Structures are given as C-alpha cells and as structure tokens.
Amino acid sequence: MPTGPVAGGCRGPAGDCGGGEAGPRGEGPYPPRGAAVRVSLRGDVPLRRRKIVKKSLVPTLLVLLAGGVVSVFVAAFAAAPTDTPPPDDKAPDVRFFVAAVTVAWFTFYAVLLAWYPLYQYLAFRNYDYALEGTDLVIRKGALAPREYRIPLAAITDVYVDRDGLDAALGLADVHVATARPVPSRFSHLDGVDEAGSETLRKVLLDRSRAARGESARD
User: Fold this and answer.
1) Average pLDDT for residues 170-190, to the nearest whole number?
2) What contacts 17, CB < 8 A, 6 or more positions away?
3) Residue 94 and residue 111: Cα distance in Å, rounded?
4) Are 25 and 35 contacting, i.e. CB atoms less than 8 angstroms apart?
5) Contact, 178 vs 153, CB < 8 A?
6) How far is CA 67 from the centre of its chain?
7) What is the pTM of this model?
C-alpha cells in the first residue's frame, strides 16, 4: 500500500493514524474499524497483468481459429479466376468489389482480434477492491465500471480457488461467501497471485469477524 497521505494526511505506520491497522506489508494503515475511509486493498495485493492473458486467451484463440478459416475462403475467392470473364467494361468493377470485400474482411478480423484483449485491459485498469467503513467495496467493468458493497458483517467465509489455467499462470481466485445473495460477478476477486490470495483471505476474514463482533455488541 502506498505510504503517502491517506484519509486527510495520515501516513506511515498505524500508530500515526489514530489506531489504524497496519497493512499486510506493514507499510501503511488500514482505516480504523468502522471508519468511513476508503483504502484500496489493491495497493497491498495487486492484480497481476497475467489476468488479461487469462481472460483473453480462449476467446482470442476461438476468433483466431474461426477467422482463419473464413480468411482462407476469402483469400481463395479473391484469387480464383472466373470461368466466364466479365466484359471489359465491367472488369474494373468486379476487381474493385473483390478487393473491397477482401480488405473489409481482413480489417474487421484484425479489429476483432485486438478488441477482446483491449477490453480486458480496460477492465484490468478499472478493477478495484477496497475497505470503506464496514463494507468491502468491489468495482468492476471495462467501459462502465460498477461498484458493489458487501457488508463485512455479512461475510460468512472466504476461500481460495484455482483452475488449471490459474495454476499455469500463477493466479488464484478469492471467493466471498455471504449471508445474503451477491451478484456472481461481485462475489469473487480474480487475478491475484497465490500469496496475494492468502493475504486477502486473512484480511477479509479478520475484518468480517471484527464487524460481526461489533454488531453483536451494538
């Protein structure tokens, strides 16, 4: 987490911030429990750029395969001689049409190949997970980011999961189970490494237990 000013000039260790908790690396404080201050957890547990690869890999390969097949047919069509050549006055029009179709297709194909990685890059840039007051705040979305708040007291479990692609890329997913329904896209944090996933799991479980204890006292 950055050591610069946080919450109105607070910096440095937890003791300089009126009892805030030290972050996972001890570099900066989390806000005191219940304080309405947003502190991004992404600073201590960053997303890995390999997340872009993970999210883009399968769709890009599918586009590459399907588009490659279509491209072969388009190229063959453009290069194939006609059995009945058009009249001389029509030949330029036919050649122009074939050339236009070929250029249009390969331009569309190139844009299609680039679009999904670009979309995932924008989603990566906008992704955030933070503590604010008694909530876990998750922001996701590439073009129109949305935020969702999960009360820490409502969290019943936090667990780490990895599929085969995660294991190959050194990534892990952190799933948040709650006492109330949460939209599936906001019920997990993906794209952190294995060490980061364990750090997030510990922080969220600790904060959840503390929030439930405070709720019980109230």
Assistant:
1) 91
2) 6, 7, 10, 11, 29, 31, 32
3) 26
4) no
5) no
6) 26
7) 0.69
Structure token digits, residue 16: 């300089």
What would the pLDDT profile of 114-131 be if each residue is shown by its tens digit?
898 999 999 999 999 999
Q: Contact at 8 Å (CB) between 10 and 20?
A: yes
Is 71 strand, coil or helix?
Answer: helix
> What token pair was written down for 172?
């892990």
Say yes or no to pLDDT of 85 above 60: no
User: Which pLDDT band, with edges at 50, 70 and 90, does 84 fall under?
Assistant: low
How far is it, in rounded angstroms, from Cα 155 to Cα 209? 9
SS3 content of the chain, % helix, strand, coil (to 5): 50, 20, 30
Domain extent listing, the chain: 14-47+150-217, 51-123
The Cα-based distances of 70 to 59, 61, 115 in angstroms read: 16, 14, 18
Residue keyed to tokens 């993906």: 190
- The C-alpha atoms of residue 135 and residue 143 are separated, in whole angstroms, by 24
Q: How many residues does the chain have?
A: 218
